[in-house]
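Before the break, one more example. Copy the sequence into your notebook; we will annotate it together after we see the structure.
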Amino acid sequence: MAETDLHYQSPTAREQSGPRKPRERLGSHERLGPHELSGAAHARPAVPRRPYLVFVRAGADSWHQRLIRENPDRNWDCCINWYVEPRNESGAEYYCTAPQTINKLQGFLEFRLQFGEVWPYRYVLLLDDDLYLRPGDLSHFFNLCSYYRTYLSQPAQRWFTHTTLNSLVRNPACILRRVTFVEGMAPCFSAAALAELIHTFNWTKSIWGTDWAWGSLLQDREAVHVVDAVALEHTRSGNGRKTLFYQRLLAMGVEPGEELRGMQRRFPRFPGPRTCKSGHVFSPRIPRSAANGAMLMFEKLKFIVRLRKQFLRNWRLLRARTADLLLK
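Here is what the structure looks like once it is written out:
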């Protein structure tokens, strides 16, 4: 088994690094850290004090510190899985490095092994490090997931952020919208969904296509939702060039598009990402008789998002090519 180093930062140790609001004691379940664990099979982290977990695969420009700082009363623990040289910082409950892993899902698999057979979190959100949610939104997101008992879900994307799929863009008419697909950048798994789908986490190296497999495996169940009441911002729009992650993949001979096409061939019945016809929770601000029509209207208006995305993508490519020509 490959070695994974996990550092557990207890509340006591965090409070020594700066002022924090007093926290209640949890008796025999209060954490005792910090712990240093090497080798996933040797020991387990202390019992969590919060029911939810945010797992971030973090690089040098990760937004996780801001998320932690802006949410002092959060209902979620945080695990930082470095893919660069680890920083000297505190604030998160867990810090782990797994140099042998390639992507976020593989990093999470190594972290999950630390807990053995018992997984203590009700929901886990696997968050890319360039995603930002406003203060309180992550806790609100988890509360909604728990209240509506979502299985596999994700926060919606803001209209004028860097989006990928229209079905994942926020629909103002809904609190919760049933869809066929959630994206690998911010999937949220219930404990049951994690147990069912974790075997897929190493199916691709780029993660492209793994989220396609999730939608396919859950295709005949009302199990996938976008939480429209909470929206995220994708802070990195790209500069028309491949990121370091994709450069590394290409150097390994991995082509993300081909991995996606391989999953599409494996699951030919899956129709792809879309909003379903039913199974939504509508906003109480909209009269019930008008709610479905309002939802459909906003879905159609998302062509604005698509046109803007296409324009910006072409502009970034043109700018990058022009810069390359000028530097020759």
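Residues 10-43 have pLDDT under 50 and may be disordered. The radius of gyration is 20 Å. Try to locate both features in your own notes.
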